[in-house]
Amino acid sequence: MDSIYNWLISNKEWFLSGMGIALVGIIWSIVKKLFHSSKTKKGKLKISFTFKQAWEQNIFGHSPVFPLYSFEIINIGDIDVQIKDVQIYFCGRKIDTPYGIADGLTQIDSSNPRKYQVLLSPKQVLKGDFEISSFLPIINNQLPLNTDIRLKVIDTLDNKYFSKKSKYKSFLDNVQISNTVNKKQ
């Protein structure tokens, strides 16, 4: 410790000059990069969605039509992203649900409750669907038609990623299309 102190005293003019401070800054940034864990980095996800109509075909014809909010999540970054949850997010608005006040809803598949809890490697794609008519009764007209809705993806480090916005009215329109098709059957 004395040798470092003696060196600093004998080189204080050079060390405190612009050149010395710049050198300390460069060394600090190199050390920081070396010890900076990739776990603290935020990945890059591209999230897109579309509205669809789906049905099952069998020998008796096809089932009722279901309105879907389909999504695709692509890891466009260079690190793995461990996804914890995929939600329909109401952009700051809150609704009263049977489980409490919420600013979004997630869909749990009882046959695969961890369906969307996956590790996305770079360039990997996750596709999924929310069946819209299953969560509309929970919303139950608590949102104005012009409410912005996004898809929100949360990773295990609680980083949040968002899709572009759509309107709540688009969800209702998609349900109306399904209902119209189903009435014609």
Can you walk through the features of this model?
By secondary structure, this protein is α+β, with helices and mostly antiparallel strands. It has helices at 2-10, 12-15, 18-35, 132-139, 168-184; strands at residues 45-54, 57-58, 61-62, 66-75, 81-89, 95-97, 100-102, 104-106, 119-120, 125-131, 148-155, 160-162, 166-167. The strands form 4 sheets. Strands 5, 8, 9, 11, 12 and 13 form a 6-stranded antiparallel β-sheet that branches. A 3-stranded antiparallel β-sheet has the order 1-4-10. The model has no long low-confidence stretch (mean pLDDT 84).
Could you list some keywords that capture this structure?
185 residues; alpha+beta; 3-stranded antiparallel sheet; 5 helices; 30% helix
